[in-house]
Amino acid sequence: MIKPVNFILVVSLLISLISCSEQIGGGSRSINSKVITFGIKSDKTLGFIICSDISSIGTISSGGTEWKGHDGSAWKGYIKPLEGPSIEYSASSKSMNINGNNYDFNTGRIFIITTENSKISISQMPNEIKDGDYKKEIDRIISLKEVQKIIPNK
C-alpha cells in the first residue's frame, strides 16, 4: 500500500519532470477548402508553413508536436487526402524534409505544394516569416500573391 505522503511526492516529481520540457506545437487548417499546415515555435512564432492545393474535404492532416531538443524546435506531420498523393514532412529548427526532399530554412520557411495531375510540385518561397503572433503571420502569408494562386479568397 502506498502511503499518502509517498504518493504526493511521486506525483509532484512527475509533474516537475513534465514541466521541465518545453513543448512546441503545430497545426493544420482549412483555408477556402485547401489544407495548410504549420509549425509553432516555443515563443509562439511561426516556424514554417506549408500551403497546399489539396482539398480539405476528407483529408487528414497533422501539424505534429514534439519537444524542444538540444538543436531547437522539431516537428513531424502529414497531409493525407482521400485521393491523390500524400505529403509527409519533418522539420528541425534549420531545415525541412518533404517527401524525401530536403530544404534549408536559410532559403525560406514558406512552402507551396501543388498536386496537379497527381504529381507533387514543391516550391520554397524566399519570403521570410516575420516574428510576432503566428496567427497574424499565417493570415499575412495567405494573402501573398503566390499563395493566392492556389488558395484564392472567395
Question: What is this entry, summarized?
Answer:
This protein is of the alpha+beta class and 154 residues long. The protein contains three helices and ten strands.
Question: If you had to describe this structure to a student in words, what would you say it looks like?
Answer:
By secondary structure, the chain is α+β, with helices and mostly antiparallel strands. It has one domain. The protein contains three helices and ten strands; from the N terminus they run αββββββββββαα. It has helices at 4-20, 134-142, 145-148, and strands at residues 25-31, 34-40, 46-55, 60-62, 74-80, 87-92, 95-98, 101-104, 110-114, 121-125. The strands form two sheets. A five-stranded mixed sheet has the order 1-2-3-9-10, covered by helices on one side. The chain has a five-stranded antiparallel sheet with strand order 4-5-6-7-8, with no helix packed on it. The N and C termini lie far apart (63 Å).
Largest sheet: 5 strands, mixed
Per the principal axes of the C-alpha atoms, what is the gross shape? globular
The helical percent reads: 10-25%
Please count the helical segments: 3
| Average residue-wise pLDDT | 82
What's the gyration radius in Å?
Answer: 18 Å
From N to C, what is the helix and strand string?
HEEEEEEEEEEHH
* Total beta-strand segments: 10
- Structural domains: how many: 1
Strand percentage lies at 35-45%
Strand order of the largest sheet: 1-2-3-9-10
Which structural class best describes the helix and strand composition? Answer: alpha+beta
Distance between the termini: 63 Å
Low-pLDDT parts are 4-23
